[in-house]
Amino acid sequence: MKTTLELPDHLMRAVKIRAAETDRKLKDVVAELIQRGLAGPLIEGGNEQSDNPRKKCDALDALFAAGDELASGGIDVSGWAAHSREVWR
To answer: Which regions in the chain score pLDDT beneath 50?
Structure first.
């Protein structure tokens, strides 16, 4: 299915680098990263207004772990990671 997403430039750049480094199509890398994110803990209610802060933290931890994995693969996500941790914690 085709869709349009607005993503931060630095995040999209990191995904494009991952695709190029692994010689894969951008859509395949995005699909894999989304699939990994969906495999993590679910935030109750599907939005930021969850009544269970622990579930929200679990989901954020999974997101941060994905960022750490990108970084370990040589993709510079330090600015995004630092900003995200500051804003969401």
So the answer is: 47-50
